[in-house]
Amino acid sequence: MLQGLYAITDEILTPHHSILAQAETALQAGVKLLQYRHKTGKDSEVEEVCIKLQRLCRQYQALFIVNDRPHLAQGIGADGLHVGIEDMEFTQARKIFPQGIIGVSCYGNVARARMAQDAGADYVAFGSFFPSPTKPLSELVPMTVLSEAKAALTIPICAIGGINVANIHEITAHRPDMISVVSAVFAGDISGNVVRLNAVMQG
To answer: Of 127, 128, 66, whose CA–CA distance to 101 is shortest?
Structure first.
């Protein structure tokens, strides 16, 4: 199931008072993976909303991934965990979260992705490929990284960073397994956004 449109929540675009309704709209429209990304607050403060998001994802046969909170992911039985280079080592994350999916951010580094694969990562993510409204300081990565990664790896790969309905066709040409978006799903008409993005991905 590590394929398809991968939506990531955002503290501004998906605030806690509306995140469940927004997530359900996205899942109903065809999002296949949902990542909860919330960089502030303690695990105990976000545990309840994560339990409800996991329940929603199960209802719509989608995967629920928690960003950078391995103890929380383990505690609620999340489908998966995503860690970045600044978060923690994969081996440490796997000790805390032994059973589920773990994805690793590799930015533009295929060698790092190969190490993550060798360590047991379930998927790797590359990007940003375009200027990103949610991560404006991210370095841009050439799209050829996706083709290099496809040739070098056997685990699924994910493209992320500034991808929207106007440029997603440039990414799909390199055939990543998953494409991650934040504002391209959650800004404006969520259902319409998902339908339009999926139309290009599946076209």
So the answer is: 66
Average pLDDT of span 74-88: 91
What amino acid positions are annotated as catalytic residues?
37, 105, 135
Q: Which structural domain range is residue 14 located in?
A: 4-201
Pairwise CA distance, residues 125 & 123, whole Å:
7
Q: Tell me the two tokens of residue 186.
A: 């959650």
Q: How many domains does the chain have?
A: 1
> 């998906």: which residue's tokens?
14
Give the span between the Cα atoms of 195 and 167, in whole angstroms.
Answer: 15
Alpha helices in the chain (DSSP H): 19-29, 43-59, 70-76, 90-96, 110-119, 144-152, 168-172, 183-186, 190-201
For the entire predicted model, the pTM comes to 0.96
**Nearest by Cα to 85 from 120, 59, 109, 55:** 109
Q: What is the pLDDT of residues 29-48, one digit of tens each?
A: 999 999 999 999 899 999 99
Asked if 46 and 36 count as a contact pair (C-beta separation under 8 A), the reply is yes
Q: CATH code at 196?
A: 3.20.20.70
- The 3-state DSSP class for residue 101 equals strand
